[in-house]
Every structure is written in structure tokens, then in C-alpha cells.
Design a protein that fits this description.
Chitinase A, domain 3, 39% helix, alpha/beta, two-stranded parallel ribbon, 26% strand, 7 strands
């Protein structure tokens, strides 16, 4: 498996989810299975089957997170000397040249990407266009709606 870049915050989020799955969810599901078994015939026991399905999901997610963390390269952008260039983990303030709207994105790993909180994957077209550029540069991004131009207003490492 390839190494996966993660920000410090992304790694912390995955660690917290893993801890919750192992210390809260797993014991709760095991208890639910035990209670459901006490109800008798397992073939027609919906509670038992639902609990087993939850267990399967929980164990699968634990394995997935452990694999991601074991293959992660955790990058602390506050310690990277990028000389004002856009790098993984950077927060970038942009102006859409066509609409004049300002937008801020943080470039993160695929597992951390969430457009609702302006975190975009390092593999996204916008991030790929921004990497290596610096304040004042104008980048053109091919989007489904056509080519869009953005001016880089500020690059921050937080």
C-alpha cells in the first residue's frame, strides 16, 4: 500500500475515532450480541443479526483506520519551510477572477477532504493547480463547468 499524506489534525481525528470504536462501540456491540443470544433461536432473531452486522461494520472500520494510520505520512505544515509556496496542509485564500468571490481552502489528504469545511483533497484539480504556486500567482483550473481562474491572495501554514 502507498503512503498516505495526513495532516496532524487528520491523524488526531482518525486516532480519536479508533479509540471510540475500540473502547465504546465494540464493547456495546458485544453486549448487544450477548443480550440477543439470550432471546433464543438465532435464525429468526433480528436483534442478533442487527448486532452482528454492527459488529462487522465496526471491526471493518477499525481495520481500515489502523491500515490508514500505519501507512500515513503525518505532515505538520507549521514545521515545513515552504517559503510562501502552496504545499500539502497549507491554507490558501483565493479570489475567483470571474466572480470576484473570495474562498479559502486547506489542502489535505483524501480521507480528510470535506468541501463543507473547505478542506480539499491534494488530488483534486484545484489543489493540483495550486501546489508549488505562491501569493500573487493566478492559476487556471479545469472544472466540469469549464476553465476557472483563481488568484492566490494568501498562503498560510496553520
Amino acid at each position: 500500500m502507498n503512503k498516505v499524506p495526513l495532516t496532524v489534525q487528520g491523524a488526531d481525528t482518525l486516532q480519536a475515532e479508533l479509540k471510540k470504536l475500540k473502547t465504546e462501540d465494540r464493547p456495546r456491540i458485544i453486549n448487544a450480541i450477548a443480550v440477543a443470544r439470550e432471546h433464543g433461536d438465532l435464525k429468526e432473531n433480528a436483534e442478533y443479526h442487527a448486532a452482528r452486522e454492527q459488529q462487522s461494520f465496526c471491526e471493518g472500520r477499525i481495520k481500515e483506520i489502523e491500515a490508514k494510520l500505519s501507512n500515513a505520512v503525518i505532515i505538520d505544515v507549521t514545521t515545513v519551510n515552504a517559503n510562501g509556496k502552496v504545499v500539502f496542509g497549507a491554507t490558501v485564500d483565493l479570489t475567483d477572477e470571474e466572480s470576484g468571490k473570495d474562498i479559502t481552502y486547506q489542502i489535505v489528504g483524501e480521507d480528510e477532504a470535506d468541501i463543507k469545511v473547505n478542506k480539499i483533497s491534494v488530488g483534486s484539480p484545484i489543489a493540483r493547480a495550486l501546489i508549488g504556486k505562491e501569493e500573487g500567482d493566478v492559476v487556471e483550473v479545469q472544472t466540469p463547468g469549464g476553465v476557472r481562474s483563481f488568484e492566490i491572495v494568501e498562503v498560510r501554514y496553520i
